[in-house]
Structures are given as C-alpha cells and as structure tokens.
Design goal:
Elements: E1 3-4, H1 6-14, H2 16-19, E2 36-43, E3 46-51, H3 56-61, E4 67-68, H4 77-86, H5 93-107, H6 124-128, E5 133-135, H7 137-145, E6 149-153, E7 158-159, H8 161-170, H9 177-192, E8 196-199, E9 207-210, E10 222-228, H10 237-249, E11 254-260, E12 278-284
Parallel strand pairs: 2-6, 10-11
Antiparallel strand pairs: 1-12, 2-3, 3-5, 4-5, 6-7, 8-9, 9-10, 11-12
Helix pairs in contact: 1-9, 7-8
C-alpha cells in the first residue's frame, strides 16, 4: 500500500531517533539532543563531511552513522595500527579480510616481486589523525534535520539545514536536486522504520539496509534502488535482470523503492516537506522454475 511519510516523520520526531542521541541530563533528560560537530569541505563541485574526533564513537554507537575512510565500517584503523605496533591479541574484521586475501595469494603460483625497501612508520601521535570519519551526505542531512548536527564549512561558518541541503544538491554526488530529494525521502523512510541505511554502490544499488545493530552486528538484509514513480521507466529490463543477478549472488533480496513527488513544480532549492511524498516498495526476485 502506498503511504506518505507523515507517520514516519512523527515516529522519528517522537520516538528513539530523537532521544537516542540525548546524553544524560538531569534538567532536560529527553528534550535536548546532543550536538554532533562536523566540518564540510568543498572543492569545485565535490564535497565531503568529516566528523570531529570526540563525536565519532557517539555517532557509530547510536545508529551506525559515518564510516572510517581506512576501514570497512566504523573507524578501526587506529586499533589495527596499535595492534601491529604492540602485537596485541585483538581481532578486527579487516584482519579476517586480510587473512583471506593472503591465503588466496599463497595459493597462486605467480611469484612475488622483490621488496622495494623499508616503509617509514608514522608515530602514534600522527596515526591518531590519519583516519577521519566521513559522514554520508544523506546521514548529514538526516541528523541536521533532527537537530543533532552542527556542520561548519572550512572557514568555521555554521551552516543551516537549508544551506547544507543546497551544498549537497549542487555537488556532483546527485544528478539534480530532484534526484537528491527522491533519495533523501526514501532514506528518511527507512531510517524512521529502524533500518540502518548505508550506500549500496559496491553492489550497483542506492542503499543497503541493515537490521538492528547495523554493519557491526550482521550483513545487510536488502539491496535497494530508488526510482521516481512515473509512467515512463528509465531503466531497461536487462538492467534490472543484471542487478537482480548481482544481488542474488551476494544473497541480498532486491527492493525497488518508488518515490512520488507531491507535484511537478516543487521547490527543491530548499529542503522539501517530506510528509507530502508518497512511497511504494516492491521486492524483486529471480524466477526459478525448480524452486517449489
């Protein structure tokens, strides 16, 4: 059944998405959200957002927001660096990946190149600063709309939610402001229903949906592509079959999320009213005649 985002918006405002970011406070235990600090850097039409060091753990522990640029999910590079220096017994998911790659290399008969010399190792003080946590633009817009994010530019100027929206819309990350609005409406809908939403670019989709606990707890449950709900589909069936095959190979059901704009002349230079969007979702599965 198609449904507007009004119920999702209400749930996000009144339920855990607002309160889970709240630190203990005797005077206002639930009404004052924590303020996450982040800095937006822009170069030409590209942009990226880095979270301040003191707030990285809070974001990851309360919604799995952000990604360490040298890690697969949360920022574990510093821990792995200390492990290599101090020879500790702690084990990270990246260690498992590296172990598998080493085993595959050892199984090959191709000889290795000679060593090119010693590599200079950075000191611990430098290593602490080597892996910033980067916020996905949709994460940043979501946290900003909930009042949990203070995002400044490289000059230290505090950006309002509308200014942040315009910077993201003008970047090359999205084809247009309309494309951003459609993606953000779908993102907000999934977040409001308790899903942890991550980029699905490595599987050719828009989103990956994780259950409770996020990427640290389990693999993603669904792969999602987001489309504008129109009478003229912009993708061929060949593309859909190929994407479905990719998703089936990694055991992720494919969900097509259609987003209908409230009207054609919507002003998208400012953040839209998400309660006016209409969303439908369809689960796509490959037909197998041998399956009962």
């Amino acid at each position: 059944m198609p449904q507007t985002l009004l119920w999702a918006w209400t749930k996000a405002k009144l339920a855990s998405l607002w309160y889970q970011m709240t630190p203990p406070n005797l005077l206002w235990p639930t009404l004052v959200p924590i303020k996450i600090k982040a800095t937006l850097y822009k170069q030409s039409n590209d942009m990226w957002i880095w979270v301040d060091k003191e707030h990285e753990a809070v974001l990851w522990q309360n919604g799995s927001f952000g990604k360490g640029i040298l890690s697969r999910a949360d920022a574990t590079w510093l821990g792995r660096y200390k492990q290599a220096i101090e020879a500790t017994e702690q084990y990270f998911i990246e260690d498992l990946t590296m172990e598998r790659r080493e085993n595959r290399r050892d199984a090959c008969r191709i000889g290795r190149l000679d060593s090119i010399g010693e590599v200079e190792v950075s000191g611990m003080e430098e290593a602490v600063q080597m892996e910033p946590v980067q916020l996905w633009p949709l994460d940043a817009l979501f946290l900003s709309e909930l009042g949990c994010l203070d995002c400044v530019d490289a000059d230290g100027y505090l950006l309002s939610h509308a200014q942040l929206w315009r910077v993201v819309a003008e970047s090359t990350l999205y084809r247009s402001a309309q494309d951003l609005a459609i993606k953000y409406a779908a993102y907000f809908s999934f977040r409001a229903r308790g899903w942890t939403v991550k980029s699905g670019i490595k599987f050719g989709s828009d989103f990956l949906l994780y259950g409770k606990g996020g990427p640290a707890r389990s693999h993603s449950k669904y792969s999602v592509i987001v489309k504008q709900d129109t009478n003229m589909p912009d993708e061929s069936w060949q593309y859909m079959f190929a994407l479905s095959r990719v998703c089936s190979q990694v055991r992720k059901p494919l969900v097509v999320c259609y987003v209908e704009l409230p009207h054609a002349n919507l002003d998208l230079q400012n953040p839209p009213d998400l309660t006016q969007f209409l969303i439908q979702e369809f689960l796509i599965e490959r037909f197998n005649p041998n399956r009962k």
